[in-house]
Amino acid sequence: xxxxxxxxxxxxxxxxxxxxxxxxxxxxxxxxxxxxxxxxxxxxxxxxxxxxxxxxxxxxxxxxxxxxxxxxxxxxxxxxxxxxxxxxxxxxxxxxxxxxxxxxxxxxxxxxxxxxxxxxxxxxxxxxxxxxx
Length: 133
Hints:
Elements: E1 2-11, E2 16-24, E3 30-35, E4 41-44, H1 48-60, E5 64-66, E6 75-76, H2 79-84, E7 89-92, E8 104-106, H3 119-129
Antiparallel strand pairs: 1-2, 1-5, 2-3, 3-4, 6-7, 7-8
């Protein structure tokens, strides 16, 4: 079985569109872009967060940014979330470390367009958060 989710997206020219995804509920983990048809593509990885990253990279090459929690630069999954929950949920990074008190979000849940960024933005934020930059 798979779940269908509809996510708002922003195009480089400022317009908006809806992206319909098929999110697998079990392995193999293959995230599919279903709509719009001209963007249809499939992304396979070890966890859903990695699938979403691949989809985001492909969409960014077309000037499209997904408006979902997984596209926020301050959202990133822990190793345990990726292993035990297939990366469906991730933490909102805050001061300190991942902990039971950290806010957890569904990576496919909606986010405002001003909250999201590119994959590069997210990588930079995570590297800074963990002190690698």
